Every structure is written in structure tokens, then in C-alpha cells.
Amino acid sequence: MAKEIFMPKLSSTMETGTLLQWFKEEGDQVDVGDPVFEIMTDKINIEVEAYEEGILLKRYYGVDEEVPVNGIVGYIGKEGEEVPDQPGETPEDPAVEKAEEKEAVIENTSSSETEVSSDKKVRATPAARKKAGETGVPLHTLQGSGPNGRIHKKDVEVSGQQQERVTPLAEKVAADKGVDLAGVQGSGPNGKIYRRDVELPAEEQVPAAETISTAYEGTRRFIGDRMQQSSSEIPHVTLNTEIDASVLKKMRAELLPVIEKKTGKRLSYNDILVKALGEVLISHPQVNATFENNSITRHQESHIGIAVAADFGLMVPVLRDVEKKSLSLIVQESKELAVKAREGRTRPDDMKQGTFTISNLGMYAVDHFNPIINQPQAAILGVGRLHDKVIAVNGTAEVRPVLSLSLSFDHRIIDGAPAAAFLTELKEKLESPYQLLI
Amino acid sequence: MREITYAEAVREGLSQRMREDSDVFVLGEDIGVYGGAFGVTRGMIEEFGPERIRNTPISEAAITGAAVGAALTGMKPVLELQFSDFITIAMDQLVNQAAKVRYMYGGKGHVPMVVRTPSGSGTGAAAQHSQSLEAWVAHIPGLKVVQPSTAYDAKGLLKAAMEDPNPVIFYEHKVLYKSKSDVPEEEYTIPLGKADVKKEGTDVTIIATAIMVHKALEAAEELEKRGISVEVVDPRTLVPLDEETIIASVSKTGRVIIVHEAVKRGGFGGEIAGVIAESEAFDYLDAPIRRLGALPIPVPYNPVLEKAMIPQVEDIIKAVEETMRGA
Fold this sequence. Notes:
The complex is a heterodimer.
Chain A: E1 3-6, E2 16-22, E3 29-30, E4 35-40, E5 45-49, E6 54-59, E7 66-68, E8 72-77, H1 92-104, H2 126-135, H3 153-162, H4 168-177, H5 195-199, H6 218-233, E9 236-244, H7 246-263, H8 269-282, E10 289-292, E11 295-298, E12 304-306, E13 308-310, E14 313-315, E15 318-319, H9 327-342, E16 356-360, E17 379-393, E18 396-410, H10 416-431
Parallel strand pairs in A: 12-16, 16-17
Antiparallel strand pairs in A: 1-8, 2-4, 2-7, 3-6, 4-5, 6-8, 9-18, 10-11, 12-15, 13-14, 17-18
Helix pairs in contact in A: 2-3, 8-9, 8-10
Chain B: E1 2-5, H1 6-20, E2 24-28, H2 44-52, E3 53-55, H3 60-72, E4 76-80, H4 87-98, H5 101-104, E5 114-119, H6 134-138, E6 144-146, H7 151-163, E7 168-173, E8 180-183, E9 196-199, E10 204-208, H8 211-225, E11 230-234, E12 237-239, H9 243-253, E13 256-263, H10 268-278, E14 290-294, H11 303-309, H12 313-324
Parallel strand pairs in B: 2-3, 2-4, 4-5, 5-7, 6-7, 10-11, 10-13, 13-14
Antiparallel strand pairs in B: 1-8, 6-12, 9-11
């Protein structure tokens, strides 16, 4: 019996996965554990491995197509076995169970969000189904012209024409110039052919300084939607403070060679900030909290998310149990997490269960900013640049290195005073950072 | 070529064979001087004499039983049943004897006989003289079933039927006896099991038998004016059935309407629909298979009701248009 390959559910918020590439062709031999295809999901790209051994019988989706979680992406089975032309519906319970079983290794999924896109059986004539199978048009996306919405062959053909990846203008220009569109490489999304592609023969095409539109999808969309949701759901309050970083600067300068010798990695201010946060969060469980399903959880451990700017977008890997870790271990681990994040190798596990997040823009000319809380966490610390400023010290104006901190908190679950107390203690710790060694 | 009627074509085919093959003889009720109920054998007794044009008592069972016996002993009888409704009386001889002997005796005996019998309504002959019961015999392994729709087909198919070593039920349509077409004077054979595409088309296939072939062609002509290209396929023989031609046509057009005069329920149209649905033509179907047949009632005597009972040209046009809309 041919076995389905499902779109795995890799996180509680994942609803669809975008196919990035296939590693196997239809007809290829597949062994258990072989990567079959790669998907882009919540913030990550991941290779999906085969759970079965056999021949890859069917691939239902092409590159860049979105597949609902637990949707059937393909089939593995014996040579010559019959599989449906269309991915069809995911069989109700067994598939969900099966898929979740598989995913259980990765995470304990919440049982919600296992719906599949179409729950209605498609009404289509055999000829329409055959045509759809040949052209790869998903029948459930079509509106049939027959009685009760029955899809006829011509409905599939019309949709196939619409899906041709060429703009009407490009088509017209091509017709005028007698250009065969089959030989034109489109420069648009999914190789869509624009007028410029038709006007310039392929070899003469130069990357023009034109505005490029890309679809709001994948990682970008995931980040964006989360930001939107957090920004609109949470009453954000941001507290700003500046710290005198004279001692901090001195301490870093002294520890840097020591830690570099031990770990091979350079100590950053951010590492010291993480260290300090790890301690201060433990004594402020009101801030070290998460808010989910009308329930506030105050955490006994500091799992600190560190915002990392990767080329493809913002990643927030989590450094766990920070309060138990030495500075050198923090340096070691946070650098490893950052490298993985920039290379897109962050696993879903690496981004889970954070209790607080730090976002550092200190390398830019940013004094302070109002960070958006990383849900379901209760607060986030924004870190500005460290630079010399004239400040009053014991009644005299002195030039001191100053670092600005901004704490955004969720006023639904934290009030101003405890948030201020947290920030104040953090400021004290960072102004006298040797306390961290106690 | 000259035009002759369907009845003349049958007579000519029969006579030509009898001149060539002395084993062929005809038996039936009033087929001698009277020329049979529809005049098909008129004049034949003068040429062939009462030995070979044999009048019989009014007993279909006896006529058929005698024919089976004659066939088993080397003759090639052609028997006429005045109305195909009376085939019910001959059924035991046909089903339990004629159809079985060759099989039951391992091919040692065979039954080369032809049952000529007029079927169909349209003559005001009412419930017991107007039926189309071809599906009854088509169900019986060992019987071949022929339904010619034109004079040309009738002559060619009759020769094939007379030369066939198996019992063949040869349905002639009463209303078609007077229809004319070009028929060659010399003998020719149309093999059993070879359908005829009476008209080529691209949008929809009508599979029609006997008189319905003509109604389908008339409907096709009107539909052509409305921009619908109709292909009309005449199976000509139900057993054996030319599945290949049917499947090819339906695969081409993707839509099919099956029309026969017999009652739709349990009619041969269901068999044809099944053949299509089971074949590769299924993948090309772009509308439900549709059957047109008579209403499930005895044929009424009232000519208006008699007409209303069976599919007419307008019914076929309507069915085609609905099928084209996907209804």
C-alpha cells in the first residue's frame, strides 16, 4: 500500500509550509531517512525525511507551492501502485493522529489547527479530473460551471490559461514581435514573464535597477503577522533608562582576552547584558512571565531569546537556563546560536520556550527604541548604542560611556512599578557589573 | 446504384442466398401466397416453391423448434415470426435449445438459423404487437442479435446472419420497411459486430439503434444549425457489440447519449452505458452518460400516447442540449 507523505506540523502556529525544493524525482527509490523535500515554515527551512521505504510515486506540489499542515505532499509505495491524481483530502483522524505521532518527537503539538484546506469532495467530470491531473491545476480551487458547481473540462482549461505565467501585456508584445514565449525566461515570481523579458532576448537581459516586488509570504509573512498581532493585542508600555557603562566597559575589556582564550570567541556587551538579565529575571518573576490562553505563567528559569538579524529576516533563538550559566558559557552558546540563525539552520526547538527577549541595535546609531514584545512573553529589552555622553557625576559634568535600555512590557499582566523595579535593578547590576560574579 | 426499400432489401438478400445455397429455406406464418405480415416474402413462393417457402401452423414454439431441428440436421432455416412480441412463445426453443446445443455438445452440433422478426411501435398495433424486446435475447449467451436501421445494412447483415453457424435474432423494424436507401444489386456481407458511424461529429456522440438512428440523424441536423456537432453511431448488432467504435467515439466527444426504442428500464442502453463507464472512455467523459428509452408502460394504442411513449426527435435535441450544458 502506498503511504502518504504529509506536510509536517513543526510548530503550534504553523498552518502551511512552502515547498522549496524536491530532492527526489517521481520514480526514484527512497529509503527511510532520506530527505525527500525541503520546506520553509515558521522562520525555518527544514528537510523532510521519508518515513517509508519505496518508490516516490507521486509529487502533488511544485516548488513555491503552499501545502496545508498534514496535507498530502506525495506518496511512497511500490513500483506501479496506483495513487490518486489529486492529493485530495487528508483522511480525517488517522492521518492527523499519524502526523502528530511523527511530530511528537519534535514537539508536543497542541491539538488545534489540524484542519485541511478543503473538507468538501470535489464534483468534477472524469474528463475534468484527467485534464487537471495532466496540467496540475488543483481542482478544489476551481469554480465549476456545471450544475451544483460540477467542474467540466473547459473549466480546467480556462483556469490553466489563466495560470499561464505571462502578463497580458507581455503576451501582446510577444505576439507583435513574433517571440515564442516558450523560449523566454520570466523574471517575475515563479518565472512569470513580464514585458521586459519579451523585449530583451535572454542573453541581453541585464539586471535593471527596477523596483522588485516580492510576495508577502514565508518567513517574512510569519514575522510580520506575529509583529502585527503583538502590536495590536498587547498594550505596550516602554520604559527608557540610561546606564553609566564606565565599569561595564572596563570589565569587558579585562574579561575579553580571558574568555577569548578559553572559548575562542569574543565577549560582547550583549553577552554581559544576557548574563545580567539571567539573574535579574529570577528575582522578578512578574517580568519573567508568559501570557497564554488567559493564563499567566511566572517562570523559575531565565530562557532568554536573542534577536538575530539574518538575511531572510528576524530570528530569535533561545538561550536556556541563563541564570545557571557562566559568562564564558553564555558567550560560547550565544555565538553558536547566532551563527546557526544567520545560516538559516535554527531548528524549531531552538526558538521555543523563551521567557524574555533581548533585542540589541547597539551596533547602529540608535540611542533607544520601543521594541515589540515577542508573544507570549511579557516583556522585551531593547538595547541602544554605547557612546560617550556628558553626564552629571557628583555635581560635575563628566564624559562617560552611556548605554540606553528600553523595556517594553505587557501592561495587561505587568504594572508600571514592578517593571520599573526590574529595570532599576538591571541598571544597578550593569553599573556595578562585578556583582554578577558574586 | 438503385434505391430499394428495407423490405425489398431483405427479400433480395434472402432470395439471392437461396439461389446460391440450397440448404437455406424459409418458414413462418402466412409467408407463402400472402407474403407474410409485412409482405417481405411476397413473390418468393412463386420462385422457390412451397418446399422452401413453408407456411406453418400458428405456433411460434413449433416454428422455432422445427427450425432448431432442421438446423441441427444440416439445413439453414430462416424463420419469420410475424411480430417480435411473439418471440416470448418461442423463448424456450431459443434460449434452452438453439442457444445451448453447440456449447453443451462440445461443438459437435451447431444451429445455423436466423429468426427474422419485426419489432417496434408506430403502426398503431398496440401493446402486444409493438414491443422492442431485443434486450431479452441479448442477455442469452449463444444468441446473436442484429438490428439493422437501413435497407443497405439489412441486406448485408442478413447475408452475414445466414452464413453464421449460430442462431441469430434478426430484428426488422416495421416502420422502416418502407424506408429506402442505395443498395447494391449483388450480394455483399456486413460482418456482425461492426458498428457504423452514420454521421461524424465532435461534440457529442449519440448511440442509436434501429429507428432511433433516423431520429438521431434528424436531431443531429437540427443541432448542427445550433452549433453542436453530433456523431451518430449505429451499433447495428447488439451481440456481438462493437465496443471499440463506441469507446473511440465517446473518447473523442466526451459526451454520450444512448437512444433506443425499447423501454429504458433494463434496456440494452444500460449495457452500452456500462461498457463506456468501464472503458478508457471514462476518463474523457465530461458529462454524465445519458439514456433515452421508452417509458415503462405497455405500448398504448392511442397514436398520440404511442408517440409520447418513445423518444422523439425533440427529446433527443433536448437531451443533447442538456448534456452540452453538463446537466
